[in-house]
């Protein structure tokens, strides 16, 4: 056997060579030490890993055979580091899922008492999401170390996790679910009757966390009634020895089990008992209301009325009880309208100065008819404090008729801004009043002159944020509306003020990063303030890294949960990992990262994988206000296009792999081109599928819809080019030519930009997006022409059959169209830039910001109180600079011609 210190000294330089992908040097070092007699398992595993990653096919095949030999070797490899290295080699051969767990299984057969080896196996299985392998590891621990009771519960946990995996065959899930049920039931049955004198728990349930595991298993395997019975029984209820350790967890598990079992009568009675102790627990009230509504017996109705009246008469007022009464009255029909009105009045009289009051009341108020709602409004109209006035404003906005007049809207906007302005110097400021004004402005004309109103809201938001820099809704709306108006560098700077951290990148960062490559690919300096500098590429890299780090943290959490016998959150962590693996936002960020690299001319030697399906969408908009039922629809109109989902990901992934393949052909990267071709064939099947076109406009912008046929033609031409098919690629080239010609004609016949401040023409997000997506498409067309030209000129002996059908005249005409369309895009950008810099533009923007033009003339007085002339000029000057910056981004993208 080799001396470990000698082996370490020999392996280290090989690992250094591997770290820099210097496979030739790594193999030379392996051969050198092999000749010296080095035969340790670590060395042999590393040598096999080097061989399978070597670019020479002979070495790769030799390494493949060596890896399989080591997997089957007797005696098996038992060194954990060698096993890890073997797993990496198997991953390179796409064999890790099948062969990787077997390495651990064979190792523990010869080291059955090596606890460390079992734990390493379990940890690796958890990291790999391989729950079948993890269960074998825990079963081995349970068998080899029967005196450690924790391994019994670890094994139950793994059986439960297997049962919960939708991706596994139903037969396996049922089998392991049954095993988990039997084992956990046995643990519940063996709880001693006299718990006070318990000396040793043995394998009986003895902690609240073990109770949580019991309930999870019983509820998921179709036995929630047993959960309810046990949690109400003397052995596990809140008064038991186990229950007293964490009564709140026991209550939570009981409520969960009632929902699962649908034992509504028992739930109602139990909640009645619990409410005597936990009157402020809204979850108990929620189940109580649900149980009563599912069992509408007259006796229960009367009983419910008495319980609610009693709870709502308690002083100080119990918010949860009053909310429960409102929800209960919802279920009682029109006969309860007067009672609902009365409880709304009582609730508002207590909480109208609280930010949550309107949100709590709005559903109940919508249940009332107009007369009762007007009566409620009258009782609130005399509020003098700013927060009370804010509640009245929310009521006015929330229940405006759909056909509200422009005069009424502007009057409301003025009222809201006056409340906002007067509250600034008080102890109870109302920044939310400005948000109500913003939403009302957006309602003035959601289609006609929408850019005019958007500009006014952007200026107003910047004024308001200067008064309340930490009020996050100002920044959220600014990002949304600045981006909509083509002010991407300002939107980026605003985003930096949000200080988005950790998994907020998964839920919030999409506000600025969605389609960023086709809106503003270049970094912004922050106008000299380094804290406001923003680089889209770095931001996307940060987002992807945070998602990866979150996965690592969840793995650690699962391991720690087992180690400290904390089972209640393990399944949630497993679900979160699955969501991260299939994260829609993660796929979108990966695509945007590659699109940015192409537009900025950054070399890329990797391939975008085909996205898994289905994907999980964790993008969040719940932080946006919804005073009205249609507010979400209103706000969505100001996004930079529809939300990308799976169809967008597949369509964009197809185009990405086409571009990757063509670039790899030009730069002679056969490994990259082979993988890209494999992916684009798979993605073409998805894009050509019968259901792909259904609802496509709900995910793609107008520009993306206009480009997609060209992208499909590029994919088809690439496949014909690769396969050397006798079928002519002329049809595909004709489609590409038609798209290029049509896009050029469209640009020549229409005027770019939108008019704001009466007659100032500026670029909106749609102008920037259309320009950059067309330039990206032109670059890929240029690469296709380069490959075709290279092959038809005889520089390559491959695919001459296909290339020969692309005559030189067609290629020449298409090349001329590419040049002409690129020039037209840049000419349009220069013309818009000249418009932004025209004399008098700054003054017009200032007048518009101060409300000196219709329909905002009523607001001039309050706006002048909120903002002085110098500040307004600074804001409007920043707008001009941002538009210039965005147009410079379009002008910076050049189409490279390949000859």
From TrEMBL:
Q: Kindly give the InterPro entries that the UniProt entry links to this protein.
A: NAA25_NatB_aux_su
Pfam families according to UniProt = NatB_MDM20
Q: Which domain of life is it from?
A: Eukaryota
Recorded GO CC terms: NatB complex
Give the family, as the similarity comment puts it: Belongs to the MDM20/NAA25 family.
Provide the protein name: Uncharacterized protein
The organism of origin for this protein = Exophiala sideris
């Amino acid at each position: 056997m080799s001396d470990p210190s000698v082996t370490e000294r020999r392996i280290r330089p090989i690992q250094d060579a591997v770290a820099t992908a210097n496979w030739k040097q790594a193999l030379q070092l392996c051969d050198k030490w092999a000749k010296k007699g080095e035969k340790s398992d670590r060395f042999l595993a590393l040598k096999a890993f080097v061989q399978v990653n070597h670019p020479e096919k002979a070495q790769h095949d030799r390494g493949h055979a060596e890896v399989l030999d080591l997997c089957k070797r007797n005696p098996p490899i038992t060194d954990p580091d060698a096993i890890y290295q073997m797993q990496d080699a198997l991953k390179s051969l796409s064999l890790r899922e099948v062969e990787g767990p077997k390495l651990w299984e064979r190792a523990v057969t010869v080291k059955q008492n090596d606890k460390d080896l079992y734990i390493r196996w379990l940890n690796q299985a958890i990291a790999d999401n391989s729950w079948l392998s993890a269960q074998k590891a825990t079963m081995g621990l349970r068998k080899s170390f029967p005196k450690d009771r924790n391994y019994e519960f670890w094994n139950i946990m793994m059986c439960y996790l297997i049962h919960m995996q939708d991706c596994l065959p139903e037969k396996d899930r049922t089998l392991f679910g049954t095993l988990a049920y039997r084992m956990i039931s046995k643990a519940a049955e063996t709880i001693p009757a006299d718990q006070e004198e318990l000396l040793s728990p043995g394998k009986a349930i003895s902690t609240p966390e073990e109770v949580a595991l019991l309930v999870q298993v019983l509820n998921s395997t179709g036995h929630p009634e047993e959960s309810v019975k046990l949690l109400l029984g003397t052995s596990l209820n809140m008064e038991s020895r186990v229950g007293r350790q964490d009564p709140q967890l026991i209550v939570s598990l009981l409520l969960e089990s009632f929902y699962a079992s649908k034992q509504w009568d028992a739930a109602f009675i139990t909640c009645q008992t619990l409410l005597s102790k936990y009157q402020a627990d809204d979850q108990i009230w929620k189940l109580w209301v649900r149980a009563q509504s599912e069992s509408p017996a007259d006796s229960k109705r009367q009983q419910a009325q008495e319980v609610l009246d009693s709870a709502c008469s308690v002083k100080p007022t119990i918010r949860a009880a009053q909310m429960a009464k409102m929800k209960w009255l919802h279920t009682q029909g029109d006969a309860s309208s007067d009672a609902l009105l009365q409880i709304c009045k009582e609730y508002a009289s207590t909480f109208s100065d609280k930010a949550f009051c309107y949100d709590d009341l709005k559903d109940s108020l919508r249940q009332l008819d107009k007369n009762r709602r007007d009566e409620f409004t009258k009782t609130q109209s005399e509020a003098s404090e700013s927060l009370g006035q804010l509640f009245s404003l929310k009521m006015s906005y929330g229940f405006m008729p759909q056909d509200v007049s422009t005069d009424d809207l502007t009057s409301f906007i003025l009222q809201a801004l006056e409340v906002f302005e007067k509250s600034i110097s008080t102890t109870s400021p109302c920044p939310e009043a400005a948000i109500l004004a913003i939403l009302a402005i957006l309602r003035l004309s959601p289609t006609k002159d929408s850019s005019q109103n958007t500009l006014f809201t952007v200026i107003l938001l910047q004024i308001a944020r200067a008064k309340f820099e930490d009020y996050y809704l100002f920044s959220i709306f600014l990002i949304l509306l600045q981006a909509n108006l083509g002010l991407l560098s300002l939107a980026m700077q605003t985003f930096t003020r949000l200080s988005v951290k950790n998994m907020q990148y998964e839920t919030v960062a999409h506000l600025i990063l969605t389609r960023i490559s086709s809106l503003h690919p270049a970094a912004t300096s922050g106008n000299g303030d380094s804290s406001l500098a923003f680089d889209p590429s770095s931001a996307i890299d940060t987002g992807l890294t945070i998602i990866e780090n979150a996965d690592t943290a969840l793995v650690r959490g699962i391991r720690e949960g087992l180690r400290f016998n904390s089972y209640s959150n393990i399944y949630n962590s497993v679900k979160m990992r699955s969501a991260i693996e299939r994260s829609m936002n993660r796929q979108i960020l990966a695509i945007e990262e590659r699109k940015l690299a192409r537009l900025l001319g950054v070399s890329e030697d990797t391939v975008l994988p085909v996205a898994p399906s289905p994907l999980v969408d964790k993008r969040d908009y719940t932080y946006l206000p919804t005073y009205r039922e249609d507010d979400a629809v209103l706000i969505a109109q100001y996004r930079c296009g529809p939300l990308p989902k799976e169809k967008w990901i597949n369509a964009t992934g197809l185009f990405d792999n086409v571009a990757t393949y063509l670039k790899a052909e030009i730069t002679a990267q056969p490994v990259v081109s082979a993988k890209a071709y494999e992916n684009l064939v798979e993605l073409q099947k998805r894009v050509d599928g019968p259901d792909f076109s259904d609802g496509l406009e709900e995910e793609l912008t107008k520009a993306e819809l206009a480009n997609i046929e060209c992208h499909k033609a590029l994919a088809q031409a690439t496949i014909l080019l690769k396969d050397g098919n006798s079928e002519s690629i002329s049809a595909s080239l004709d489609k590409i030519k038609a798209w290029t010609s049509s896009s050029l004609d469209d640009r020549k016949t229409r005027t770019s930009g939108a008019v704001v401040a009466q007659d100032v023409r500026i670029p909106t997000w749609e102008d920037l997006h259309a320009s950059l997506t067309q330039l990206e498409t032109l670059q890929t067309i240029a690469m296709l022409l380069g490959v075709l030209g290279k092959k038809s000129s005889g520089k390559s002996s491959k695919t001459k059959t296909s290339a020969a059908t692309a005559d030189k005249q067609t290629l020449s005409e298409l090349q001329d169209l590419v040049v002409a369309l690129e020039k037209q895009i840049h000419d349009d950008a220069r013309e818009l830039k000249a418009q932004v810099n025209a004399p008098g533009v700054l003054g017009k923007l200032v007048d518009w910001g101060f409300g000196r033009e219709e329909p905002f003339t009523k607001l001039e007085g309050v706006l002048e109180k909120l903002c002085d002339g110098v500040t307004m000029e600074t804001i409007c000057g920043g707008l001009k600079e941002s538009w210039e910056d965005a147009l410079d981004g379009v002008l910076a993208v050049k189409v490279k011609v390949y000859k």
